[in-house]
Amino acid sequence: MSECCGATTWSTDEAHVWGSCGWSMPGMEVKVFKVDDRDMNKKTECPRAKDITKASEEEQGEICFRGRHIMAGYMANPDLGKDHVKYIEDKVAAAIDADGWLHSGDKGCMDARGMVKITGRYKELIIGAGGENIAPVPIEDNIKKLHPGISNIMMVGDKRKFNVALITLKTKGATGEFPGTDELDGAASNYIKGVTSLRAAMKSKEWIESIKQAIVDTNKDGDVCISRASHIQKFTILPQDFSVTTGELTPTLKLKRGVVDKKHKAFIDKMYQSRELYIPYE
Q1: How would residue 38 be classed by pLDDT, with cut points 50, 70 and 90?
Q2: Quick one: pLDDT at residue 187?
Q3: Crossing angle, helix 205-220 and helix 136-146, to 10 degrees?
Q4: What's the first-to-final CA gap in the chain, in angstroms?
Q5: Domain residues of the chain, as ranges?
Q6: Of 3.40.190.170, 2.60.40.1120, 3.30.70.1030, 2.30.38.10, which CATH number belongs to 2-120?
Q7: What superfamily does domain 126-273 belong to in CATH?
């Protein structure tokens, strides 16, 4: 984070845990807190995780930093007026609490040795109907790892009874900046013999079954889906990939989940009404 002037944790070849970002460097403090939703100054330190690869919800919270490497604040320009200065002051107050802890926005845990693991971003978390906190990125990444033909996947399930997924396939011309064409590309182009277009893949039983299997295998993986609330129960294949020009990605290619949700809301609602596992996009 630029707000902490560079690195806060590190690990070495002699002391390394896969999936961890290491332990705090000398002179720096790292703690994991349960933070009040309305007042960041009200926080309780989480217990150390017995196993950072399978941390319980109680053991996870917001990762916070403190030390001389933390910024003094964001720089304001008085020439822009009092409203601007107040805006910057509010931004600082939203980043660093009264005790000097910089709130990273990352959800994670720390074990007894001080090894820190990031498990998600609070802005990306899905809050299930039962109040469960679900980090979608590890689940999405695992499905993409199991199925090389998938380009992007976005889980939906905030305040809903279960999760569904919007999936895009790899197509020619899909660069991130542009959504691409209807012609399949890369691993998707020869994944199913004779299926060379996105439209054909959306109707292909073999394609649908292969994606279904990647989702089922991910749901069964306890290291990725730590509870039934994190399972994906329905999916669809979108007719084009996410991109900057179509508004779903930022200039740095980060997914705008709110934009995608709003753009496809009507169809997402239909997915929840359907009894089918795969719902063809309309």
Answers
A1: confident
A2: 94
A3: 130
A4: 41
A5: 2-120, 126-273
A6: 2.30.38.10
A7: ANL, C-terminal domain (3.30.300.30)
- Each residue's pLDDT tens digit, 136-163: 998 999 999 999 999 999 999 988 999 9
Q: Name, in order, each residue with C-beta under 8 angstroms of 71's C-beta and a sequence gap of 6 or more.
A: 2, 3, 4, 5, 96, 102
Q: What integer pLDDT is reported at residue 19 of this predicted model?
A: 85
Verdict on whether the full-model pTM lies above 0.85: no
Residues written for the chain: 282
CA 122 to CA 135: how far, in whole Å? Answer: 8
* Two structure tokens written together for 276: 């089918």
Res 282: pLDDT: 84
Q: Which two tokens stand for residue 127?
A: 């809050």
pLDDT for 231-243, tens place per residue?
999 999 999 999 9
CA distances, 129 to each of 132, 133, 159, 206, 252 (Å): 7, 10, 5, 33, 32
pLDDT single digits (tens) 75-108: 999 999 999 999 999 999 999 999 999 999 889 9
Q: How far apart are CA 224 and CA 139, in angstroms?
A: 6
Name, in order, each residue with C-beta under 8 angstroms of 278's C-beta and a sequence gap of 6 or more: 208, 211, 212, 234, 235, 236
